[in-house]
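Worked problem 6 (solution included).
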Amino acid sequence: MTVRNNVNLDALKSTAEAIREGKVPGERVFTVSGEWVYDRYQFKATLEFERGSLEVHTDQPTPAGGKGNAPNPVQYCVFAMVACYSTTFMTIAAKRGVEIRSLKAKGYSRVNMRAVFDLEDAPVVEEVGIELEVESNAPAEVLDEIRREADRKCPAAYTVASSVPFKSTVRIHGE
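Solution. The predicted structure is:
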């Protein structure tokens, strides 16, 4: 097994080949289902993955109507964005033969609370961003090329940076 940067390169190659040959679908839909709760937290969901599952909870801070007993949903969004981007960056580096000795990531979402609380008509999210701190022998230009490719290929970054169609529906219980 060939592993670089904790990325299994043999698995990547095998999966790409299987997609190319039509042995596995070239598209995948990721879903999460959860429910509103009325006690300690406000929302919970169980995330299922290949080797298990994890129940996660969200709650708003008290000034936003919650109890402050769990991370708020925006924190999960930022976590997901940072984790997805870091994974994409490290995978691209591994595929290019670039060893990364250390990667630390920091992300943010600048939320306009005046817009959230209907105090002004403006975009709710003003900016999101990610900063990576990387330790590698690779030249800065190579790391910047990897960053630019990660900007294009990271599903989370793509969703934030592009006009991805958004659809919401409400189904009345019993219908």
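Discussion: Helices lie at 9-20, 73-95, 113-116, 140-153, 155-161.
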